[in-house]
Amino acid sequence: MTAPILCLEGVGVGFPTSQGRVSAVTDVSLDVREGEIFGLVGESGCGKTTLAMATMGLLPSTSDVSGAIRFQGQDLVGLDREALRRLRGDRISMIFQDPMTSLDPAFAIGDQVAETILAHRDIGRREAKARALDLLVDVGIPDAGRRYGDPPHRLSGGMRQRVVIATALANEPALILADEPTTALDVTIQAQVLSLLASLRERHRTTIVLITHDLGVIAQVCDRVGVMYAGQLVEVASVGELFARPRHPYTQALLEALPTVHHERGDLRVIAGRVPDLTDPPPGCRFATRCPHAMEVCATTPPLADEDPAHAVACWLSEATQRAAGHVGIASGGTS
Amino acid sequence: MSAAIATPAAARGRRLRPGFLATRKGMVGFAVLAFLVAVAVLATWIAPHPPDAIDGSRVLAGPTLAHPFGSDALGRDVLSRVIFAFRVSLAVAVGSTLLAFAIGTPLGLLAGYRGGWVDATIMRPIDMLLALPALLLAVALIAILGPGSAIALLAIAVIYTPILARVARASTLVVSSQTYVEGARARGAGPWRILTRHVLPNAVGPVIVQATILMGFALQIEAALSFLGLGAQPPTSSLGVMLADGRDVLSQAPWVEIFPGVAIAITVLAFNLFGDGLRRQLDPRGVTR
Amino acid sequence: MSPRGSFVVRRLLFAVPVLAVMSVFVFLMIRLVPGDPVQTMLGFRATPENVAQVRSDLGLDRSLVSQYVDYVGGVFHGDLGQDYVSRAPVATLLAQRLPVTVELTILAMTLAVLVGVPLGVSSAARAGPLRTASEGFVVAGISIADFWLGIMLVLVFAGTWHLLPPSGFVRLTEDPLRNLRYLALPVITLAFGEAAYILRTTRGAMDEVLGTQYVLFLRAKGVSERRIVYRHALRNASPTIATVVGIQFGVLLGGAIVIETLFALPGVGRLIVTSIQQRNYTVVQGGVMVVAGLFILVTLLTDIAVGWLDPRIGEGQGS
To answer: Would you say the pTM of this structure is higher than 0.80?
Structure first.
């Protein structure tokens, strides 16, 4: 097994709001292995974007992050702002959902790619421009030389997302966090962008965390998947395992909601009930309010535990979870 | 299905709760304004002295307990004069803004709702009025019609009408595309009914917000016009007239000049805060931003 | 023609009807005066022959249309009529006064921009003492009437400290230093409220830009915060700031009417006010025409500048 490049240990994120403190992410532990495409799936507001922003150190200063986020062994939580800035765009890149608004409308697209290089490398302007041009060619911008000086509004959405990807790749980062990179694009362009990401991974051995609400996207390009619900990580498995044997009732519900031949598009909201209020979440498993199998024990948080090496789940229906909880109970009983 | 039934009631409840009290600024603005309006209305009973009572022994006398704002060149009590002058200034401000509101809102509503040539016919002249410096416009009007507080009121209304018409039009454009307007149209409601029952109540909020803020600034414009001798004429005294008078005795008795100016500043600020407070409730889409 | 060039032409064409309507308005001014304007103008001691003479001078005895044609024709030849108090041509009078008004407003706007924009930029998107201070400045600048502030400044700087002259004027061409000494208080007075307004606009525009997705993406690229604020955000906020500066120029020109009177500056604004008091309508007409024309020119220049600053304007709808 390859070593983890990104290692989350008990990560929690809270925000103060006018309604009280929101716990957007609770106790998420997760390994992302070098060279894989790891999918993070869940409804909007489940904390997947927050998790990526926490990794980048881009959360507003009012938020508080607990736990540890280790990137290549270095804990990013509490790292000073300048150190984080030097990491961003260099070792870790992020791609955002909407390519229409990701680029500065007042600057030439090529210069925006070159800017990323100049922010991290001590090289000349001309050299950075040449490299930026190579990158534009690399991500498949036709006639890149002529396009270099264009402002973003002259490009289509798909082309803009290619520019964004070129920017993210500029310094050959070890890790790319792609937050819904294809959601705003139409279906054919989606497929092109996804295959571009996949081919880049092949060529550069870049690790990619792909955040999406679309299980179809996960199935197309990911190696492994984490499923999040209301700030909790409920299941982690290889893509084949997850689709073949979903363990968590939430994952099962997600898969049942997937589009079939008869339905146009799967919407995660078809699951009965509503996501709990995160300012005052119920204790234990947060899916319990909507879960058809909810039991009394669900008021206690189920630990994420390995069913087998390729499949972990956090649900009291799972023997692994029960066992893990039992071990924890014994261990803590022993020390007191 | 109780949730579906409860929703409109809840929405109505939210409307009834005075939203301008939700922010601290809005609350302060409202409190200060309530106080100022009370002072203006009750001037006769509140003022410690008659505003025109001449006291030869107190010519340019400084503030004392009996005369907290001091006395002017004729020995008149400045506090009492400020109270009565404020009453005139506020009347001009409120009158001019209401007049502009009454003319500008229907114009903007009609232009925004009908569009096309109606829009062009209404908005072209309005844009041209906006293409001139406001104070110059007021001064030019007064040059034609002669000075006086009624003319000043009219002049300020002329400045404000295009501004409020623009806001009303912008707000109407937003509202007209909403589903309830389309729904009313689909149900075969006549244009007059749609305008008065559906568009107006929903589009007027931002206009009220803008008018509230403008009402405060009207006090500044009135003061400037009166200061130039183009507004209120003696024996009527507005805050601007007081400022013009006070300037002559500035070095001997600065209090004659200071307090009317402070009164204007506080009123403008109060209207601004109150308007901002209203915005939260009446202009959720930020048309007046 | 380039799309940007055609934008400029379209903008120029909009200024034409505005100017035309304004000329009609100014032309009608004297004819709208209740009663007999000539009698009002000349006072009641004027002889009937005198009144008849002036009336025919002004062409008031002819049809409105031919009067208007004459008036506009005159304006195009730089003839704005005659001042019936000093007997001088109005155009000459205005030519003497205009540089004062232009200098006053340009200096005031420059000061307001130099104070408002940097404060607005540096107080955007962050809490702290600077934000609080700029908040206080905005509140003061908006609520305090400019001419009252001017009087207070006179009280302090000229009355108490004797630092600056309370009123009067020396021409720039005569003695630039003394000219500035005389203009210091008027310029500060006029600039104060403007600076506050520009600060608020700049801060608002910067706050908005700093909240956009592309700024987040710039942060994700590891671009320094300094570069994000000064290169990217300020660049994108600049059309908004420029628009407001242009609009506020009109406010300044209006304010100059009051401030020139307050500080006894021999500008067009004060000329208009004294002429209204003397019922010297031809001069009022000329003054209004010049100030309005000046503002229309500034608005035009602003729009062209904004078109040049905003990458999305002037390229048609295509994207």
So the answer is: yes
